[in-house]
Specification:
7-stranded mixed sheet; 6-stranded mixed sheet; Immunoglobulin-like; about 575 residues; 3 domains; 7 helices; about 35% strand; disordered N terminus
Amino acid sequence: MSDLTRRRFMQYGMSAGVALATPWALTRTASAAMGGKLAKYVTPLPVPGNGIVVATPSGANAYAFTLKEITRQLHPQLPPTPVWAYDDGGGLGGQTGSFGMAIAARRGTPLDISYTHALPNVYPTRIPVDTRLTPFGTEVRFMTHLHGGLVSGADDGNPAATPDLYGPTSPLGLTQHAHYANDQAATLAWFHDHGLGTTRLNVFAGLAAAYLIYDPPGGDDTGDANNTNGLPSGAFEIPLVVQDRQFNPDGTFLYPTSLIPGVTWVGEYFGDVMLVNGVVWPFLNVQPRLYRFRVLNGCNARILDLNVGGAPMWQIGAEGGMFDAPVPVKALVMAPGERADVLIDFSRMPGRTVAVKNTNPPSPVVTPAPTLAPVMQINVAAATPVAPAIPATLHGGRAANLPAPPADKRRFITLNEVNINLPNWRLTLNGSGFMDPDPPTETPTAGDIEDWYYINLTGDTHPMHTHLVTFQVVGRAPFNTAAYMAAAPSGPGGFGGIDPTPFLTGPIVPTDPTERGFKDTVKANPGEVTVIRSKFDLPAGVTTQQKYVHHCHIVEHEDNDMMRTFTVTP
């Protein structure tokens, strides 16, 4: 058995008799079969105002959320599922799924938000904690991160700046206070838990929500019908948050545990059921016209390759906001944490049923995920079509085109996986994990532009996410991994970073058109060097050194231990 095959075998908690072709199959085989028993496309898609709660302010430019457990029936054939949720004070009667909250913010209008712990004090047995990975044992602590926010380290929600988190015995108490300036491009951001060593579990349990930043009236991306680009709005602008899950027969979410003695953590979590906006395999009724979809890959580990039954599609933005021009696409290849702002034209499909499907992503993306094709169904009304108007350019959009920095503003960061199948199996950056005592090696000065080279020495694609900044994807180049490892410094945590230029086996290939804008998460493929370029601006008024993190957004990898602190100094 090869190392890679053995890794897959051990990783998902399999018994010796389970076929490797179904790596999500578990020792609890009755539970693993739940996905195949559920009828598809029988539940309507939750949308803002009808299944997804649009948060109500608690005061002027303020929101107050309570984190609590609720139950929701995510499919008619399942018992109600306990999920962890953000309650805006209204009781969440309007939330129908496991993903059910959204904030609508305006660029330039700051918000003050509180998050208060009312979850169980300790994790229930259905949520398996690996106490090796967190200093807090089985106590439920939380920390909310605004993913995509230009905020201070203290407001960011990251364990470098706020290592104690918030919880029953935390010295910080039960309530997190955050200030979000919203001094950034209009975009789909999101907020989710970022607990130290427990991010994968808290997000799996339900702690994730949408954060839509719009331009103010008179701007370009206002979300209003009279926006300058003529983009669909209102009922014709719909978020799609895609997540995969497994279920137990009692309706609870199932999270597997490892077969490695003394280990609970598994390398990736893959479901056998797809949820969209928090319900299982939903349907959506649309008119034969143009729609705008704000798509988020909210999976723990699954890289998606989404297609919409041949409907014409244009990507108009990513994590950093709108592009300068639409990009025609046939599919969306999205790793966890990535967002895509897309226009889809149903005007040629009146009366048709369109299947949204997921396929295995094409090379050079590499993922061990088992196939999970069905996503949702779109039913196009048999009505008079409305012809689309696709803008040639996008007012207010941006192409990512930062000037190249000098050579001394380059950072070389290796992606490592060490001790596979052993109790001390983990993943690292530059040979160090977050829990290691090594000081930060990425220490930019505010206002500087830097190139970071992610050098992937592992066998899988990793979605690398940087807090604070959005970045330009400069490109990717193949390299000789064996020669690089022979030359790089090494230690118990893997290999350190050195300049990969002498080891490149081809040129740096410019970015894909779908990466033409600014991003905060990038796919770093195996056998490739991925180069990103960032300008490290701090929020207005910040005058002291700030701590942030960058990490793999496969949250199982982030928790063990593929995350490192970086600092920004004014």
